[in-house]
Amino acid sequence: MKTVAFRTLGCKLNQYETQIIRQMLIEANFSVVSFDSPADLYIINTCTVTNRSDCKSRQAIRQAVRRTQDPKVIVTGCYAQTNSKEISQIPGVGLVIGNSEKWRILEYLNSAGLKIGNISDQSEFETPEISDFGGNTRALIKVQDGCNSQCSYCKVPFARGPSRSQSLSRIIAQAERAVEKGYQEIVLTGVHLGRYGEELKEKAGLVGLLKALMKVEKLPRIRLSSIEPTEISETLINLLKEKKICSHLHIPLQSGSDRILERMGRGYTASFYRELVLKLDDSIPGIAIGCDVMVGFPGETEEDFNHTLKLIEKLPVAYLHVFEYSARPGTLAATFKPEVPPQEKKKRSEILRRLSAEKSFLFRKGFEGKTLSVLILNTLDKETGCLRGLSDNYIEVLLPGEGQWVNRFVEVKITEVTLERTLGELVNK
Question: Which domains does the chain have, with CATH numbers?
Answer without folding.
Answer: 2-117 (3.40.50.12160), 120-246 (3.30.750.210), 248-365 (3.30.750.200), 371-426 (2.40.50)
